[in-house]
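Dear colleague,

As promised, here are the two records you asked about, laid out in our usual form so they can be pasted straight into your sheet.

NAME FIELD: protein one
SEQUENCE, THEN STRUCTURE:
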Amino acid sequence: MSNQSVHGSRSSARDRADERESTAAVRLEGVTHEYGSTGGRFRSGDERTVTALRDVSFDVPEGMIVGLEGPSGSGKSTVLHAVAGLLVPTSGSVELRETDLAALSDSERTRVRRHHIGIVFQRFHLLPSLSARANVALPLVQSGVPRADRRARATALLEEVGLGDRTTHLPGELSGGERQRVAIARALSTDPDVIVADEPTGELDTATGADVLELLTDVGRDRAVLVASHDEATLEVADRVVTLCDGRVDDVR
């Protein structure tokens, strides 16, 4: 991986963005989403709902990192879930390379997510009984890749993220930073077009978080990355930052 520092200013990140092709890998247009609650009904009989997103529109260009910020409850997780195809918005569209995910069936959306979207979770979501290599290879099992090929792919990815000597270690034998690197390698296993990351440094100390950010910066050179975070250091590596407030886009910078 590159040894380049990831702590440059946001202005320099924007300068990099200006030099890149601005083709949108992901496009949200007028996305609104309402969650029904379990708290009963109004007197009118209408089901109680919570509007998590209101007319949200922005692009995630290919070869760029877009940061998503906002207070808890602002809608960041709902945006990530919509982009990852884990939910269908109430209205509006979420396009992945001009394919509207909301227009797909559940099975079609699962297939798109399996082959084109990599997800990095805050708390890693590694299976504790599987080795680092087996965790990285798991999406390839689901895609029907032969065992020898997925083993080779997982080994190569772990070497790429600096864990070539940890392939047989269980998650419980790894540090937090190492587990997040395994999670990123797993997200890359299908060579996706888009990486969606939810607070990727939230469980890490400052130094370890910086290493993970460097890795994400390298990852973002040839694919689209959407990362939600409260952490200013994480947002500093973004080429563009979208601010959400009460489910709406409040600012783009």
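NAME FIELD: protein two
SEQUENCE, THEN STRUCTURE:
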Amino acid sequence: MNVLIVYAHPEPKSLNGALKDFAVRRLEAAGHAVQVSDLYAMKWKALVDAGDVVGGPAGDRFDPVGDSRRAYANDLQSADIVREQDKLRWADTVIFQFPMWWFSMPAIMKGWVERVYAFGFGYGVGEHSDVRWGDRYGEGTLAGKRAMLVVTAGGWASHYGPRGVNGAIDDLLFPIQHGILYYPGFDVLPPLVVYRAERMDDARFSAVRDEFGERLDTLAQTAPIPFRSQNGGDYDIPAMTLKADVAPGLSGFAAHLDVADA
């Protein structure tokens, strides 16, 4: 299996750094091919701008969507974007590893998504009509691949529980897992979340490492989160709302999980 780790932490000697290094060793020892996009070490440019298009914008102003479409279709993307897209094509499974900062991923990783998920690659794919609204949410360029989040958080697990003050972890991660991963087609595996990351002694690190190792060993067998596919019949098109007989009385993030198939 080909595994890409997209990694965002500025300190190699951090907990995240240790877990990333462990993942590479574990996966390679099992015979997998591994690539790592270490965004801070790469000094990844996080800002979307006219420099993403070889030759500059088509008109007298930069159009993030229109110029992204033109650049992708005409091989005019900057070289760093092309390299990351090629890694995604190569990968069977992608692990996104990061510390949770201000209830989301670090800005550098969000910038990776915004630049690498170009129009025609990450979005704007497929037929838009009265029967389909693009190849997305279960379909798209990355369909058939798997993805998983590995997240460290400073708070306690209870802080991220169903009644925790920070909000339920599944809700906090929904925009990433459903939006950034499932939208372009990934099958999304349940995340590995490490709580109280600043309170890590040797014994606890050993337990976390063992849990992570088990998750790495079963990447190909783990059942993905049962998100509803957009074009699978559950949504009215083009309104893109759940049909009245689907999850009646349920709204919010949970309504987009097909728990009957879980």
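A couple of things worth noting about protein two: The helical segments are 15-29, 64-73, 79-90, 107-116, 169-182, 202-217. The longest strand covers residues 93-99.

Best,
R.
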